[in-house]
């Protein structure tokens, strides 16, 4: 009888383990690729402190992340824009945690140019300028141009600043459909030019170019000298509870503030006072 009781207890324990009763808490956060790298860094730090597994799947875009949240596939959504009017009626809430400058990024074997003018940018994407030698003391190498699809947050930001870009059809170069794909393509092929959120390429070897002589730095964004940036936010449905609430609270705390800076983002909230353990 004692043996049967022991076996029953072990069986219940194993069933509970397999069913996740004692499994580690887990959060899934779908959405934009613009903050994919940043949320991975934040998720890792949160896991270290709270023992909650944070999964950051590959990009499905801001809209895709919100749709997966509404369907119950995700606990939170990551976005690179404000909520649309038709989304506000779905009991959705948005917290903007950072801003990321949209940067012109180049893969150059030698740093032969450090700044482009807005006129040069338009000429490159229209196909009028095709060689790096036309931009400075660079070799006569073809400019491999990367575009993003219409509606992408980075492309929309550029088109708002430079309406002439929106009038170009077709744009020069190839089109990528996620920020991760853009960064990987940029890093792989020399003499490539793209526009990306700075926070998506922390630690990358690509060169960030000035635009009209202004560098995409935190200080220049804060002083309104560099106006190209996107908001990076987190979206939740209804009232936050449990691990999701603890994670969102963490995102606006002192450790997250420093991680955002380290990842090339600009915190969208005042620096909190560090808490004493």
Highlighted features:
single chain; 277 residues; alpha/beta; D-Maltodextrin-Binding Protein, domain 2; 2 domains; 11-stranded mixed beta sheet; 35% helix; globular
How would you characterize the overall build of this protein?
The protein is α/β, with parallel strands linked by helices. It has ten helices and eleven strands. The chain has two domains: 2-99 and 231-267, 3-Layer(aba) Sandwich (D-Maltodextrin-Binding Protein, domain 2); 101-229, 3-Layer(aba) Sandwich (D-Maltodextrin-Binding Protein, domain 2), CATH 3.40.190. Strands 1, 2, 3, 4, 5, 6, 7, 8, 9, 10 and 11 form an eleven-stranded mixed sheet that branches. The longest helix is centred in the N-terminal third of the chain and has 17 residues, at 2-18. The N and C termini lie far apart (50 Å). Mean pLDDT is 91; it is low at 4-21.
- Could you please say which CATH topology of the largest domain applies here? D-Maltodextrin-Binding Protein, domain 2
How would you describe the shape? globular
- Give the biggest beta sheet: 11 strands, mixed
Q: Helical element count?
A: 10
On the 0 to 100 scale, the average pLDDT is 91
- Report the strand count: 11
